[in-house]
Amino acid sequence: MIDAFLEHRPLLFGIAYRMLGSVAEAEDAVQDTFLRWESVVEKKDEIRSTKAWLVATISRLSIDRLRSAKRQREQYFGVWLPEPLMATVVDPHNADSALADSISTAFILMLEALTPDERAVFILREAFDYNYGEISAILDKSVANCRRIACRAKEHLSQPDRRRPVDPAQAETLVRRFLSACRNGDVASLIAVLAEDSTLMTDGGGRVRAAPGPIRGSERIARFLFGIQANVPADAEFRLEQVNAAKGILVLSADTPIAVLTFSVTDGQIATIYVVTNPDKLRHLTRARE
């Protein structure tokens, strides 16, 4: 029983994380799914597909959790960003670039425009390539209804075309240049690596100082970043890490994560910088390092 669950655990976590944008909440949803799986162990012979049962359970639990989370996020202080994920968690049978892209900060943030049902259908369809018949069974909705929900989701996202895949090597080079410019106080080099209409978003959650809203424009972003350097601890360590399936920056102080930066890249420049400094959203990174 446990082996059957563990076999599908990466997939379950991947669905929950994309639904909730929170590592802690996704882990809780996976645990709840396991507890429900334990409760039906005596009836498992009646379950035609373990994977289908587990995916249906995690999807429905995530929808319920997201409904509650959305109410909380409406009262969130400042910009809300998803919790950074320091490892790519995907179904090993579908570890392609499209699936990895669907855990990027930009993609998960984009999904915030959707209702819980729209988000579930969109993720199952676009990220995990389930057909509408399978989604219908997972969510206990008619095929026609699932198609309508998917159509609404795409309309709400107002992005008719998915952004073109970014060369990982190019993205890493840009992040390295960004970090080097910040370390060296090189304003011109920093502005050069940023798109002119780039955006910086910071999430302190009201726990630590952060910009209350997005900062737009390469020059304004440069002034902001160099202006806050005095607040960076003297022992701060900056590490290039794989974050949300792309190269990002982990900032440590006294070996404790204090910030994570992720990036979206367009046309050879950094288009958006996402900075999470809310300690609540970094706590799982401390546990993982321990």
Describe the structure.
The structure is a single chain. By secondary structure, the chain is α+β, with helices and mostly antiparallel strands. The chain folds into two domains: 2-157, PhyR, sigma-like (SL) domain (Butyryl-CoA Dehydrogenase, subunit A, domain 3, Up-down Bundle), CATH 1.20.140; 168-289, Nuclear Transport Factor 2, Chain: A (Roll). The protein is 52% helix and 16% strand. It is built from twelve helices and six strands. The protein has helices at 2-20, 23-39, 50-73, 97-101, 105-110, 116-127, 132-139, 143-157, 168-184, 187-193, 218-227, 279-289; strands at residues 194-203, 215-216, 237-243, 246-253, 256-266, 269-276. It has a six-stranded mixed sheet with strand order 2-1-6-5-4-3, sandwiched between helices. Strand 3 (237-243) and strand 4 (246-253) form a beta hairpin. It is elongated, with a radius of gyration of 20 Å. The protein starts with a helix and ends with a helix.
Give the gist of this structure.
The chain is built from twelve helices and six strands. Helix 3 crosses helix 6 and helix 9 runs antiparallel to helix 10.
CATH H-level homologous superfamily name of the largest domain: PhyR, sigma-like (SL) domain
- Helix content bin: 40-55%
Morphology: elongated
Note the beta-strand portion. Answer: 15-25%
What letter string, H or E per element, gives the SSE order? Answer: HHHHHHHHHHEEHEEEEH
What CATH calls the topology of the largest domain is: Butyryl-CoA Dehydrogenase, subunit A, domain 3
Structural class per helix/strand content? alpha+beta
| Order of adjacent strands in the largest pleated sheet | 2-1-6-5-4-3
Q: In CATH terms, what is the architecture of the largest domain?
A: Up-down Bundle
Count the beta strands: 6
From the alpha-carbon coordinates, what is the Rg to the nearest angstrom?
20 Å
Q: Major beta sheet, specifics?
A: 6 strands, mixed
CATH class category label of the largest domain = Mainly Alpha
In total, how many domains does the architecture comprise? Answer: 2
Mean pLDDT level: 89
* Poorly predicted runs: 88-95
How many individual helices? 12
Q: Give the N-to-C terminal Cα separation.
A: 29 Å
